[in-house]
Model the fold of this input.
Amino acid sequence: MAETAATEKTGRCLCGAVVFKATPAPHDDGVHVDACHCGMCRRQIGGPLMAVTTAGPVTVEDPTHLGVYRSSDWAERCFCKKCGSNLFWRMRDGSFTSVNAGAFDDTSDAKLTLEIFIDEKPGYYDFAGERKRMTGDEVLAAFAGGGTASGESASGAGAGKA
Ligand SMILES: [Zn+2]
Ligand SMILES: [Zn+2]
Done:
């Protein structure tokens, strides 16, 4: 199956102190966005995390204001120390990075293709439309098998087996 060539995208935090380039994982129908309904994402950003898995690490122009919060033994969440924008989620070993979809400058070619930790979603919202939805347990299993879903607990399972 043919996949489109990876295309680098630019992005930045709200105040502009952190400017970055990242290449979304290539798909033949555009950029895929996944939504994580887990409790950790909800507490950190106030709602579901909408993120794009990248094809490699993110390049930050000037990391002076890039904050890194080690949220678990295996993962860290990156943000702007000046304005508080949440920007990246990544495995500490560099094997997986996702960029918060809202941080990209242009997401006109992006679509929501996956919802994860659907069993942790609070009752006060639902996303319209049909797409693949996975429970936390299903994400854990997929990640352990080399899947690409993001999520704190999912990655933890993967790292735990590595
Ligand atoms: Zn900022
Ligand atoms: Zn999450």
User: Anything to note?
Assistant: The pocket of zinc ion (ligand 1) is lined by residues 13-15, 17-18, 80, 82-83, 85 (CB under 6 Å). Confidence is low (pLDDT under 50) at residues 147-151, 153-162. The chain has one domain: 9-154. Helices lie at 39-45, 136-144, 152-161.
